[in-house]
Structures are given as structure tokens and as C-alpha cells.
Design a protein that fits this description.
FAD/NAD-bd_sf; FAD/NAD(P)-binding domain; disordered C terminus; 14 helices; oxidoreductase; alpha/beta; 459 residues; 24 strands; NADH dehydrogenase activity
């Protein structure tokens, strides 16, 4: 039996937040029915984004709505609050949060009390003080950014096709991606593939007219798939006329000119930043212990070290890797660990409430798969190395098995099947980002300027 009315607060609706709450729903079904447990999930978005599908959503292979999972439908026994936690005072078991109604009400942030805390706010893009990055850079962590980037790329092709100015045309057809991890390589691979296909519908644009540049500060890309597969990926990308620059950094993108550390300068209207992530700023607004890198100090049981009734996993947590040969090694902040940690986290909270012993998180990394575009990929799984079509097929099978809910699995599979039977979708719906622009203009107002597409580079 659990204690009288245990209030569980889950901060974050990503992998860890959703899967932990989902597990708690299953494990504490009777307690929830009797009113002995209450689960509240506070999340900025009412959905969980399956990020491995963002590159395919950007390329048009998957509909954006099928990349996300509605939390209210999945977590039907939980209270889902769309809002943001601003700070946490765990000593007093209180969280300060704002919701969509906070500004309307004018009463300021509200306080929420809890008994058990699950802190899973995830991560944000790790940026550097590079001139012009805040004004012109494009991220790639959300479905909105993925679809915005897809629209942007197609619109740049429209600009290049219609302009008579060679400088504008060259800048429009130059695409710079910074970061050689999964997000950068997969986004570049999928979008280049899409743009290459789209070029056949433009009378004056050929695939070779476009410049695709990948900038990576280290000496290799995709370190998760191993050195050999990383080298193969570089070779494969260069074979597609993609300029891969290793040991190179972006030094500036001010005035829409990408300046690299090797001295190269590329006038461009597209700079995609995927150079790593860092823990959510929320962690600094708590009284919980953190590591030097800003992540929460955790135990192998996924409790926060030195804090009772506090739990964490995923990107925000530094979880010891008990399977590693070297002491002090932490699990990698990726989806493979996050999903597995979330399930154990839900189990351990249920164990704790019932006075049962906790389990230890132990999972040996099995490998990674990456897509490089349609029918192209690399994989290093259980020591086996695959490339080309087999790796691409494994990538799809693996992520189809991992995307939450049967509904989403069926819809994604149906879209893949249809895309194999019919031509690719290359429609740009950039007006979705400013749906009231036309009406505002008709009503005598001034439509908003989109800095991505402003020819003068306004921000």
C-alpha cells in the first residue's frame, strides 16, 4: 500500500516524462483508481516529439502530425498541464510554474506542491557566441523547426529560380549545416535528397547548382556508429557532392555570410545549427545537486543523489553506467537510454511508494543507426556494420518499433508505403508560419517579416 494520497509531479513531456508517466499509469493502476496517487505532468507542449523522425518529416516522407504523440490521449489517467516550470524548491516540495492562462489572469506564476518529483525537462541547443547566429541560425530540435526548414529550403529554390541576380541565386542555393552528429547528418542527408529530387521541377536549377556544406569541429562525424562507418559516411556524402569540412568551426554568419575557421566564406541564407545540446536552464533554478556540466547527479537507481523523493533520467541526468569498464562513466544522453531509463524510473517510483527495494539501471549500448536519405544509411549494431540500403531499412524498422502507440506506428507505415507508390511531396507551405498575414494586409495592417526569407536579412 502507498501512503495516503501521493502526489507525483513529472516535469517535462519528452521521452522520459511521457514514458515515466505511462509506466506509472500501468504500475499504479489500482492506486490511481482508489485516489491514493495523483500524477501531474507539466510540459511546454501538449505532445511528445519523436525526434528521430524529424529529418524524414523535414524531407516530406512523414506528415508532421505523425511525428508527435498527443499526451492527453496517452496519459489518460494523468493531469496534463501545458505550461513551464520556472523554479523548484525541493526542500519545500514546491514548483513555481506558468501556464497559457497566467498572463491572461494577471496573477503571476502559481505554486504547485508535490510529494515525488520526476525532473525530465530535457535539453536545449548548445549555442556559442557566434556573430549572426542568433539572427540567422535555424535549429533542428522541434517539429516546428523541421517543417520550417523544409519550407525554407524549397522557398530558397523558388528565389533562386526567379531572381536575375547571380549573388542572390548563389546565396539561396547554399546550405550550411553545423554539427556532425545524428541531427546534423540526417537532416542534411534527407534535405539534400529532397532538394535533388525537387530540382527536376525547376527549369533552371540543377542538383549540381546547389552547395551543401557540413561543418564539424572534430575529426570525425557520427562517432556513435564507429570510426569505420563514420569514414564511410564522409565518403558517401562527398560522393553526393556535399562539402564535408572536418576540424572546422563556424566563426561568423553575420550579414548572411558563413565564415569558417579554415578561411572559407560562403554567402548563404541558410545556416542550420545542430552542434550539440546542453541541459535545460531549469536545472539551475532548483536546489538539487548538479555535475560540473550542469546535469543532475543521479544514482544507478535513478534517484537524484543526496535528495529524497527526487528522480531524474534522460538528457538532464548524469546516470552512472554500471556496464562500463571505466569507473565514473555516465550513460549517453540519447533516446536509447532515455526510453529504457523511463520505464525503470516508473517501476522504481512504484517500488518506493510500496516500500519495496529499488532496481538498478543497467543497459549496454547496442549500437546506432542513421539515415543518409532515401535508401541510404549506416549502422553499427551488436558489433555488425551495415551501410546503404540494409542500414537504411534497419533504421526504419528500428524506429518504427520504437515510436509510441499503435496508432502512430500504423500511420507512419502507411505513409512510407504510399510514398513508395507515388511521387514525393515537395510542396512548401511557408504561409502556415504567418496564417494571418494576408488578412492583416487586406485589413490595412502590415504583415510580419519572416527573417528566414527577408531578402535584406532583417531580423
Amino acid at each position: 500500500m502507498v501512503k495516503e494520497r501521493a502526489r507525483i509531479l513529472v516535469v517535462g513531456g519528452g521521452y522520459v516524462g511521457m514514458y515515466t508517466a505511462l509506466r506509472l499509469q500501468q504500475k499504479l493502476k489500482r492506486e490511481l483508481r482508489r485516489g491514493e496517487v495523483e500524477i501531474t505532468v507539466v510540459t511546454p507542449d501538449p505532445y511528445m516529439t519523436y525526434q528521430p523522425f524529424l529529418p524524414e518529416a523535414a524531407a516530406g516522407a512523414i506528415s508532421p502530425r505523425h511525428v508527435v504523440v498527443l499526451l492527453r490521449r496517452v496519459l489518460y489517467r494523468c493531469h496534463v498541464v501545458v505550461g513551464e516550470v520556472q523554479s523548484i524548491d525541493h526542500a519545500k516540495r514546491t514548483a513555481t510554474l506558468t501556464t497559457l492562462a497566467t498572463e491572461e489572469e494577471g496573477a503571476g506564476p502559481e505554486q504547485m506542491t508535490y510529494d515525488e518529483l520526476v525532473l525530465a525537462p530535457g535539453s536545449i541547443s548548445r549555442t556559442l557566441p557566434i556573430p549572426g547566429l542568433a539572427d540567422h541560425g535555424i535549429g533542428f530540435k522541434s517539429v516546428e523547426e523541421a517543417i520550417g526548414l523544409r519550407n525554407h529550403v524549397i522557398e530558397q529554390m523558388d528565389i533562386a529560380s526567379s531572381t536575375r541576380d547571380p549573388a542572390i541565386r548563389d546565396a539561396a542555393l547554399t546550405f550550411v549545416f553545423v554539427g556532425g552528429g545524428f541531427a546534423g547528418v540526417e537532416a542534411l542527408g534527407e534535405l539534400e535528397d529532397m532538394a535533388r529530387y525537387a530540382a527536376r521541377y525547376y527549369h533552371n536549377i540543377r542538383p549540381e547548382d546547389m552547395k551543401w556544406i557540413l561543418v564539424e569541429a572534430s575529426d570525425r562525424i557520427l562517432p556513435e556508429v564507429g570510426e569505420e562507418m563514420g569514414r564511410y559516411t564522409v565518403t558517401e556524402l562527398r560522393r553526393r557532392n556535399i562539402d564535408v569540412r572536418l576540424r572546422t568551426r563556424l566563426e561568423s554568419c553575420a550579414d548572411r555570410v558563413a565564415v569558417l575557421s579554415d578561411g572559407a566564406r560562403f554567402p548563404t541564407r541558410t545556416v542550420v545549427w545542430t552542434a550539440g545540446v546542453k541541459p535545460s536552464p531549469l536545472l539551475a533554478a532548483t536546489d538539487l545537486p548538479r555535475t560540473e556540466r550542469g546535469r543532475l547527479k543521479c544514482t544507478p537507481q535513478l534517484t537524484i543523489d543526496g535528495a529524497t523523493h527526487a528522480w531524474a533520467a534522460g538528457d538532464a541526468a548524469a546516470v552512472p553506467d554500471v556496464t562500463a569498464a571505466e569507473p565514473g562513466t555516465e550513460t549517453a544522453p540519447n533516446a536509447q537510454h532515455a526510453v529504457r531509463q523511463a520505464k525503470l524510473l516508473g517501476d522504481n517510483i512504484a517500488h518506493s511508494l510500496r516500500g519495496e527495494p529499488l532496481e538498478t539501471y543497467s543497459h549496454r549500448y547496442v549500437g546506432s543507426v542513421a539515415s543518409l536519405g532515401l535508401h541510404k544509411g549506416v549502422a553499427h549494431v551488436y558489433g555488425r556494420k551495415l551501410k546503404g540500403y540494409p542500414a537504411w531499412f534497419m533504421h526504419r524498422v528500428y524506429h518504427l518499433s520504437r515510436v509510441p502507440t499503435f496508432n502512430r506506428k500504423a500511420r507512419v507505415l502507411a505513409e512510407w508505403t504510399l510514398s513508395g507508390l507515388f511521387k514525393r511531396e515537395i510542396v512548401s507551405l511557408g504561409s502556415l508560419e504567418h496564417p494571418r498575414a494576408e488578412f492583416e494586409l487586406a485589413a490595412g495592417g502590415k504583415p510580419p517579416i519572416d527573417p528566414m526569407n527577408d531578402p535584406k536579412g532583417s531580423s
